Amino acid sequence: MRVVTLLPGATEIVAALGGGGLLVAVSHECDHPAWVRSLPRVTSTPLDPSLPGAAIDAEVRRLGQAGRAVIAVDAAAISRLAPDLIIAQDLCEVCAVADGTVHRLADAMPHPPAVLSLSGRTLQGVLDDIERVARALDLADEGEELVAGLRSRLGRLRRSAPQPRPRVVCVEWLEPLYLAGHWVPDLVEAAGGTDVAACPGAHSAVSTWEAAAALRPDLVLVMLCGFGLERSRLELDRLDLPAAGQLLRSSPVWLLDGNAYTSRPGPRIVDGAERLQSAMVGEERTGLTRWQPGQ
């Protein structure tokens, strides 16, 4: 079987299932495991990721108003690769190619491949998607084993939950302020906290610093979509603190590598839940650090 994945989470699922040898191309964002960086890339974006977060948000809006795609797919390259399966998503047109585009592309190919669209918006939905990918790759046993292992780790987390459960606000973007939704509230719950800003499965939502501060969190987790620790620290340091200071100075603020552990619906979101619990008990670890203004 020849497989093309059009989002990092799907690539990570295929690799975790032991199906890496089936991959013939991936998206421009795929970087884990490290060996996938050598595979052909069949997507691209006109966005400059080095721009400040506020400028990226403005450019995304400008592209939408102009009717241009944020993520473009190289249809000619995919056709030449002749995949049997394309894995896409229907969650976010900013983060990956939307499945409607992929279905139209597949239908136009001489030998149309199957299209599997990942749709998990909660932790359970992501685990279900892992098993769906496994069945599509004829790796159902491996999928059951992988999901059982992830559930076991989540069970250990729940048994070691801090008491009392901390009130948590999870920040996905800074300018404008977005509070994380989808599977993140489930991760907070599994880690032993209560997400006071979102419900499982809800879309990430624009908010204000004043509204977020009014939630009176015990802990603020900054897990910027698509950004690692250093970039997240830079984005925080760029903020106008008089606007954000009420929230960021009244509660401990922790930075989490959102690109690795919360943005991508795949096996590593359980790693993210483990790091959320570490933040709740005040322990730094790889991909997680405490933030102080001006550090």
Tags for this model:
295 residues, Rossmann fold, 12 helices, alpha/beta, seven-stranded mixed β-sheet, globular
Summarize the structure.
It contains twelve helices and 13 strands.
The appropriate CATH architecture of the largest domain is 3-Layer(aba) Sandwich
Overall pLDDT: 93
Fill in the CATH topology of the largest domain.
Answer: Rossmann fold
Helix and strand pattern: EHEEHEHEHEHHEEHEEHEHHEHHE
Helix content: 40-55%
Q: Describe the biggest sheet?
A: 7 strands, mixed
Radius of gyration from CA coordinates: 19 Å
Distance between the termini: 50 Å
| Total beta strands | 13
The CATH homologous superfamily of the largest domain is named Nitrogenase molybdenum iron protein domain
Total helical segments: 12
CATH class of the largest domain: Alpha Beta
In words, what does this structure look like?
By secondary structure, this protein is α/β, with parallel strands linked by helices. It folds into two domains: 3-146, Rossmann fold, CATH 3.40.50.1980; 166-291, Rossmann fold. The protein contains twelve helices and 13 strands. The strands form three sheets. Strands 7, 8, 9, 10, 11, 12 and 13 form a seven-stranded mixed beta sheet that branches. A four-stranded parallel beta sheet has the order 2-1-5-6, with helices on both faces. Helix 4 (99-107) links the parallel strand 5 (85-89) and strand 6. The chain is globular, with a radius of gyration of 19 Å.
